[in-house]
Amino acid sequence: MTVIEYAPAPESRALVRLEASYGLFVGGEFVAASGPSFATINPATEEVLAQVSEASAAGVDAAVKAARTAYTRVWSKLSGTDRGKYLFRIARLLQERAREFAVLETLDNGKPITQSRDVDIPLAAAHFFYHAGWADKLAYAVPPGPGGSTPAPLGVVGGIIPWNFPLLMLAWKVAPALAAGNTIVLKPAETTPLTALLFAQVCQEAELPPGVVNIVTGAGATGAALVAHPGVDKIAFTGSTAVGKQIARALAGTRTSATLELGGKGANIVFDDAPLDEAIEGIVGGIFFNQGHVCCAGSRLLVQESIADEVERRLKRRLATLRVGDPLDKNTDVGAINSRTQLDTIAGLAHVGEAEGAHRWDTGCALPEQGFWFRPTVFTGVTQTHRIAQEEIFGPVLSVLTFRTPAEAVAKANNTPYGLAAGIWTEKGSRLLWLADQLKAGVVWGNTYNQFDPTSPFGGVKESGYGREGGRHGLAAYLQGEGH
Ligand code: ADP
């Protein structure tokens, strides 16, 4: 098959102005941290982008205190309408500066510019618009509190987020927290702090009252200090199941509530009556979008045995057309792996897949010499006991299993400790609804995959965590007596 040649179409880096080093954003100001700092790099080139402060327990404490002061003195006294005005302002500023945010996200994360431009940044703005609309309508969003009152906010929220969708995950935490009347201390992931720091500038530009949003950068120890802080009323965490368990343990017996959005091993189930062209696109998008760094990725393809060969053939043909490389190039489909550590994890598990007897195939495409890269990879002949069928790889690796009957598809799809998302491809509506009911997953997509919308609650069951983000359910988790 001929692969079409594309002329390079790089997005301009000049849209982004980086500081050499960044402090913490506390009480509306950037404060120089006295402690150590660390470098954040571009995973596509390994170039150091900036030095970022590592917040100590004292830095976290200052941020929590600033959030508490802002909550008591200002934010809890504002009307919902006024809170909504700030959120609308932030949403519009994100739109105005969307290209700058998209380039910065791509530089710091490694994801293709078309994805940060068309998915991450517009969805982040949409979350602020959506929650701005709720700020003065909380009484209609959730059941009334005692005596018919509108449920009160919780106070100070601690948000801890991962590196796969940095600004979007920030929006998932900050927008509902503020709409519900809380203030927040947010800790971005250590490999992708830059859009959160640019967001701090947006808060200043929006003249958000100081201390309503605070950003503390750092790694696991900074996150742990935020979790342990007695002044935090709720922890909203997105990340790995291992860290989610640590957080649940740390919070057991305290009065701090939590929502945990953790790992997944999503099943994308394709029946023999599925529209195959669409299904192939759904399979590719389900696992190769964002380099597979997606907690709800369709990392297990369950395909009906009668069409397995055809699906495999079509899938490989389609994957051969994916362009892997410079994330700033608008032609790129698959960007860089976010860090060397993650690349090692992916390579390690792929090696295990081979060692356990599954058949490994990759696109064989050329990879850049610098940076962290992994070819889109497919394992066939995978069985349920293989580690690549059980463990989250969080990379561009698809494990293919087969089934014969709908009941077998259900049993195999549910045979995982996780329960975040699943996809079903069939022409038959009744089968789709029956299956959706049987699947132990928080989100089930029908004849599509990886669809996100601020109005739609997202979250998992089993070891994928608890609580929902987005929609009225997500908002409720930031109000007293609701969803936590
Ligand atoms: P990932 O697999 O996405 O890297 P992690 O769970 O390791 O997921 O990281 C998600 C977020 O949790 C990051 O911001 C990270 O710094 C933070 N984190 C890591 N360890 C801890 C911990 N023990 N307590 C709180 N936060 C942590």
Could you please describe the fold and organization of this structure?
With 484 residues, this protein is of the alpha/beta class. It folds into 2 domains: 13-262 and 462-476, Aldehyde Dehydrogenase, Chain A, domain 1, CATH 3.40.605; 267-446, Aldehyde Dehydrogenase, Chain A, domain 2. Helix content is 39%, strand content 16%. The protein has helices at residues 57-73, 80-96, 98-109, 113-134, 138-141, 166-179, 194-205, 220-228, 241-251, 276-288, 308-319, 340-355, 387-390, 406-413, 429-438, 471-476, and strands at 21-22, 24-26, 29-31, 37-41, 48-53, 156-160, 183-187, 213-215, 234-238, 257-261, 267-270, 300-304, 359-362, 377-380, 397-403, 421-425, 443-446, 465-466. A 7-stranded mixed sheet has the order 13-14-15-12-11-16-17, sandwiched between helices. It has a 6-stranded mixed sheet with strand order 8-7-6-9-10-18, sandwiched between helices. A hairpin with a 6-residue loop joins strand 4 (37-41) and strand 5. Helix 2 (80-96) runs antiparallel to helix 4. It is globular. The mean pLDDT is 96. The protein binds adenosine-5'-diphosphate. Residues 160-163, 187, 189-190, 219-220, 223-224, 227, 239-240, 243, 246-247 line the site of adenosine-5'-diphosphate (ADP).
Query: Structural class of the helix and strand makeup?
Result: alpha/beta
Number of helices: 16
CATH topology term of the largest domain: Aldehyde Dehydrogenase, Chain A, domain 1
State the end-to-end CA separation: 53 Å
The biggest beta sheet, please?
7 strands, mixed
CATH-defined architecture of the largest domain:
3-Layer(aba) Sandwich
Give the strand tally.
Answer: 18
CATH class of the largest domain: Alpha Beta
User: What's the name of the CATH homologous superfamily of the largest domain?
Assistant: Aldehyde Dehydrogenase, Chain A, domain 1
The 3D shape can be described as globular
Q: Give the tally of structural domains.
A: 2
What low-confidence regions span 5 or more consecutive residues with pLDDT below 50? none
The overall average pLDDT, rounded, is 96
The percent range for helix content is: 25-40%
